[in-house]
Specification:
By secondary structure, the chain is α/β, with parallel strands linked by helices. The protein has ten helices and six strands, in the order H-H-H-E-E-H-H-E-H-E-H-H-E-E-H-H. Helix content is about 35%, strand content about 10%. It has a six-stranded mixed sheet with strand order 1-3-2-4-6-5, sandwiched between helices. The longest helix has 25 residues, at about 250-274. Iron/sulfur cluster (SF4) binds near residues 85 and 91.
């Protein structure tokens, strides 16, 4: 593949210098033809607006009880939702948290990134995707002209909102439990409703399980455009995984390109219908 200067600059931002001159025999990411919206696979299961009332799947168990009624969460504005998360005790994770990690970014950002659960540094700072994985994510976003910093640009098309499926850190950074995901997902779904993104990037296994109700491996789900409540959704690897598997950065680059294509195709569709 021949890269334009702009693409080379983007790749450099992501630390993907292998693209300039891949060594013989070095694995090079295939760039599959971008999947169009028309080719998108149907969402395996439609998630209704009141997330906590969604019938349980094999991936997510139903909660026995919740602290805030789903119908109440579904009507919350940003301040009420933030307060509800901050005071939530719906699962046992509240006992070990320093603070909840609500999310960060432009409230009407066109891009929404959904990660998994706060780690130690996120728990300490109260912000998702900080530390090394956060730096990598910021580089990836910068590579396609996006930012989580509201001050960088007032244009919501260039802004992201970042949230996790869980708002509290699991002890020892263990994997989230199904009942924890189930009890917390109403908050995430209300965040998505409030942001109304043009594209969702689901990063990592648990984000995918929550949004697509699929336990399929990331490798099987990436490379095509899914739908979540009508919003195009692209599956990709979590930055923490990319730090441990550098070669997968190339596939993450493909995923970002696919998401860009989906946003542009969606905008073109709207323009034609206007
Ligand atoms: S992880 Fe979610 S459901 Fe559990 S206590 Fe924290 S905010 Fe509440």
């Amino acid at each position: 593949m021949t890269w334009t200067e702009r693409q080379r600059a983007m790749l450099a931002e992501m630390g993907l210098r292998v693209w300039d001159a891949p060594a013989a025999g070095e694995p090079v990411a295939a760039s599959p033809p971008p999947a169009s919206i028309a080719e998108a696979q149907p969402t395996p299961r439609r998630v209704e607006a009141v997330a906590i009332s969604v019938p349980p799947s094999s991936a997510v168990a139903a909660p026995a009880a919740i602290t805030v009624a789903p119908s109440v969460v579904a009507t919350m504005d940003w301040p009420a939702l933030r307060e509800a998360v901050a005071s939530c005790t719906a699962c046992s994770l509240h006992t070990g948290r320093r603070q909840t990690v609500f999310g960060v970014g432009h409230p009407q950002a066109h891009w929404m990134i959904v990660g998994e659960a706060p780690g130690e540094e996120e728990d300490r700072r109260g912000e998702p995707f900080v530390g090394r994985s956060g730096q990598l994510l910021d580089n990836m976003l910068r590579a396609i002209g996006l930012s989580r910093q509201a001050g960088d640009t007032p244009d919501p098309a260039r802004q992201v909102f970042i949230a996790n499926t869980l708002k509290c850190r699991p002890p020892g950074n263990r994997n989230p439990l199904p009942e924890e995901l189930a009890r917390c997902e109403g908050f995430l779904i209300r965040q998505i409703e409030l942001v109304q993104p043009k594209i969702i990037l689901a990063m990592g296994r648990f984000a995918v399980q929550s949004l697509l109700r699929s336990t399929a491996p990331i490798g099987q789900l990436r490379g095509r455009v899914h739908r979540y409540q009508g919003v195009p959704l692209v599956v990709t690897y979590h930055p923490a995984y990319l730090l441990r598997n550098l070669i997968e950065k190339a596939r993450a680059w493909d995923d970002l390109c696919l998401a860009l294509d989906a946003v542009e195709a969606s905008a073109a569709h709207v323009a034609r219908g206007a």
